[in-house]
Structure formats: C-alpha cells, structure tokens
Amino acid sequence: MTDGRAAGGGGARSAEVALDSSVPPRPGEPGESGEPGGSPRRSRMRRGRPAGRGGRGPVTAVAFGPGRVNLVGEHTDYNDGLCLPFAIELGVTVRARPSLDGLMRVHAVDIGAHDVFPTPVPPRVEGWRSFARGVVALLTAAGYSIHPARLAITGTLPRGAGLSSSAALEVALALALLAHSGHGEPDRRQLAGLLSRVENEWVGARTGLLDQTASLFGRPGHALCLDVRALGAAPAPGQAPSGTAAAAGAEPAATGIEPVRLDLGRWRLVTVDSGVRHAIAASGYNTRRAECARACELLGIGSLRDADEDAPGRLPEPLGRRVRHVLTENERVRLAVAALRAGDLPELGRVLDASHASLRDLYDVSVPEVEATVARVRALGAAGARMVGGGFGGSVLALFPPGRRLPAEAMRVAPGGPGRLLPR
Ligand code: GLA
Question: What's the confidence (pLDDT) of residue 138?
Fold first, then answer.
C-alpha cells in the first residue's frame, strides 16, 4: 500500500491479500481497484447473468458505466495535461431497488459478496466495499439526498486489465443511485470530479480525471481529446464567461473535451492482457504522482503543464525523466489527434510506440511481461503497441493493419457510448 492510499482513509487492500470471494482481489492499477463489477481475469465474460437475482421490489433504476481505453496520454491527467481516451462497450451494470429497512444493501453478483451500511454517512471499510460507500458519501456531501437502495452489481470488464473497471463501477453506481433517488441528469463534469474523489478519498488511489471523464462522456465512433486543465477550469453550465466559445454554445474545446473521430477503416485496435495483475500496493503510481509534485516544487510551478522544455535538464534524476515523459506525452496526444484527422494510421502506430518507449524508459512503469506482450504483438505485425492505463501490468493496446492475424486472446475495442440509464 502506498502512502497516498493509506492516507485516503479507505485503506484499500493490496492485491497480495484478499483472494477470497468475500473481499475480491485488488488488481492494482489505480482505478482498477478490486471492484466487483469487473469479471475475473481470463474469464471475463459473464454476460446474460441476471443482476440482483432474488431481489424483491420493483427495479427503480438500471445504469451502465463503460470501461475505457486510452489511445495515448498516460500519466498526464494528474499533471493538468492531455489524454485521448474512448469509452468501450464493456462495463459495469448496477440495478437498484428500494431498500425498506433504511439500509444500503449492495450485492456484487459476480463474486457473490455483499455489503450493508447505513446512510447518509457510511463507515469506512477496505476493499471493493469502499466504492459504493464513497459514492453515497460524496453524493450526499454534494447535496443530493440518496435514498436507501438494494444495489446489484454485474460486469463484463476484465478486472485489473487497465480498462478502468473501477471508474465504470463508480459511474454505474452514481447514475443508478441518482435516478433511484429521483434526481435528474447530473452535471457530468462535476460528477467526474466527485467520482475521482471517491478513488482518492475512499479507495486510496490518487488517480486523476481520465477514467471517469472517459466513462461519462464516451461517444460512439470517437475518441475524446481531454485537456485536463481546461476540464478543471471550465465554468459550470450556465456560467460560461461572455465572449467565449463556451458562451456561444457548448464548444467542446472550451470544456476540455473534444471528440475526435476514430475512423479505423479496416485497421483494428485490440487489447491483449499481459497476464500481470496490477499490484497497486507494490506499484509506483502514487510514487510517480509524488515525484511530479516534487518536480513542480523544485521548478516553482503549480503544475507540469507549465513546465518548459528545458525543465527536465534543471532537475535531478529521476525527476528529469519523469517530466520529460509528461512533456513529450502531451505532444504525442497532439500528434495522435493530427494523425486521426489526417487518416494517417501508420503515424498513429508510431505515436503508440513512442508513448510506450517513454513510459518504459522515462516513467519506469513497465514490467517484463508487458514488454513480452508488446514484443509479441509487434512480431505479429502490429503497427504500434503500448501499455495502457497506469502501468505495472495490465493490458497492451495494439493497432493492427488490415490482413494481419490477431493474437488469439486479443480483444477488439471500439468507442462506445457514455455511462447511461438503461431500460428497467
Ligand atoms: C490510471 C488512473 C488515471 C491515469 C492513468 C495513467 O488509469 O486512474 O487517472 O492517471 O492511470 O494515465
């Protein structure tokens, strides 16, 4: 467990423990936190399993939260930088029914585990149970009254594979609870921030806004170019400063979210699981964040978005390399957007490769199994490949030109819609 996680109060459990069904394994990527909505690794599909079997009372809301793939822009979100994710079609579904005894009752159907807690101020616990408790606590603190519910959670995402099953769970929980409690459509930018705080303050992962924003704003056929600084600064709806594009009407760039058409033609994007569970306890995610904060201190800036290109040379190692990654990764997001707009998929492949090299050599977040997976997909003819998510394991994203044979276990990924309510 890293410092930030312990400080988060959730005291989340490490991947090395908790391999029983009452407390599911903690896959380890920040944001991939042992949540029950994901499916066990290597047997990821649990389709068609009815959520909430045995539950009584009318279903009041059903909500779906998608996982995400990040094309490029890794470890930039908490540095006020750029990312290029898309929501995928796999995710987590939460089904709500009234709870008549005033308690919140949560059933993680796929792992056969339960949680029961009082509202509106749930006590803190460790592991997957901190997600629903954190969502209830922070929605309540934000002024929403949340009615007691019986919640059934099911999922189709592989857990700990870097596809952000935890953000998918948070989004599904929040949308289900809000609808169950009679609230209308929330301000999604605010909700993304609130759910990111669930990770920070309840689960103990000091993650940024990437995953929740991708899950809440997914758009079929599109990746989302996120400018996290603009996301944080964008005015709330109805408060757009006059004279700006936002005032003129929902200009995506002004809100920090710009859809970019992801037109692959006959090319294919796939993820291949490296087989390494993200061991968050042992991972350096929170350490990387602390290094970036230290670099800012030494440079006298508030965020690495303000670092100039000479900044790495003024820093001791490894901080110089960390900053060099962040600066060049922001640039790679710009290059990827340009490549997509130009329909230049070989260039997109080169950007993926360069991102991987930087994550491996400058940010030091690769592991041998991820390297072996990257080498394997390249040998099969991928035009580009890189680790996806926080690193230290998880999946590799690969871009294949037409006519190439895909690895047997490859999972095709394509941009799907946002987190949403489903018919009851
Ligand atoms: C995890 C976190 C994100 C982001 C990525 C790295 O997925 O949840 O906030 O920092 O790692 O890009």
Answer: 97
